[in-house]
Structure to design on (257 residues):
């Protein structure tokens, strides 16, 4: 059987699955994601505790946001006593990549699907769930997403709540040690691409230096940490986009041919 025939067979097989089968497969694929979420969310809960949130508040924040970087940024500015506007803006900036993921997924949804199903898929857009959704052949069945989210989302929210609870019970030194795990998560995100791309490595170094300099400069240093994060994110990302534009997928395909 040729490759094209196998692909067509996979597409037809996926599109003829029942909603129950799609949910079961999504739940199965969401188990390893949920287990990973629990470990990371535990450390996130420590950061939420530092911002003054109780376990219930942390659970609600995680189940309604599902965004590690966005939540950490939000907890950081909450701890810095930032305004509601600053919290909203920094969360929007940190989660902006999900707009692109949602746009990509919109092309994989059957046009006959209702708005409620589209809203449900958008609710569970995360980096990891997006990755398994894009592997689906043909149209994306919403119940596949619901299955993955049915395990992953509660694990994320529960991990945050338990992290806050454990942070309240454990000594301060241990809590401080656990909070390092969250920084390790961010290092795990930036180190692999930085090792393979000198531009990214340079931008990471510039970001660190700019963040330190901004905290020391006379005028910018007097701003709240939330405002500084917003300014640096917008300025550095904008400059990087202008100086080092990422080639489109079509151009990359042409170059590879």
């Amino acid at each position: 059987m040729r490759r094209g025939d196998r692909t067509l067979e996979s597409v037809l097989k996926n599109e003829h699955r029942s909603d129950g089968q799609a949910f079961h497969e999504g739940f199965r694929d969401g188990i390893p994601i949920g287990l990973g979420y629990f470990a990371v969310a535990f450390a996130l809960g420590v950061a939420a505790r530092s911002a003054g949130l109780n376990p219930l508040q942390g659970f609600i924040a995680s189940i309604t946001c599902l965004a590690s970087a966005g939540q950490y940024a939000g907890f950081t500015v909450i701890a810095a006593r930032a305004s509601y506007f600053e919290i909203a803006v920094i969360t929007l900036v940190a989660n902006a990549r999900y707009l692109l993921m949602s746009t990509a997924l919109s092309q994989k949804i059957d046009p006959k699907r209702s708005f409620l199903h589209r809203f449900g898929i958008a609710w569970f857009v995360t980096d990891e769930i997006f990755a398994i959704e894009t592997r689906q052949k043909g149209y994306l069945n919403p119940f596949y997403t619901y299955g993955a989210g049915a395990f992953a989302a509660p694990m994320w929210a529960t991990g945050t709540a338990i992290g806050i609870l454990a942070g309240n019970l454990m000594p301060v030194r241990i809590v401080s040690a656990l909070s390092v795990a969250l920084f390790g998560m961010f290092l795990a995100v930036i180190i692999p691409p930085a090792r393979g791309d000198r531009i990214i490595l340079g931008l990471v170094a510039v970001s660190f230096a700019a963040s330190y300099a901004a905290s020391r400069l006379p005028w910018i240093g007097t701003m709240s940490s939330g405002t500084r994060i917003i300014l640096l994110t917008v300025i550095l990302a904008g400059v990087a986009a202008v100086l080092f534009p990422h080639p489109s997928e079509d151009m990359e395909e042409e170059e590879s041919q």
Remarks:
- The mean pLDDT is 80.
- Residues 19-50 form the longest helix (32 residues).
- Residues 3-183 form one domain.
- The chain has two domains: 3-183, 197-257.
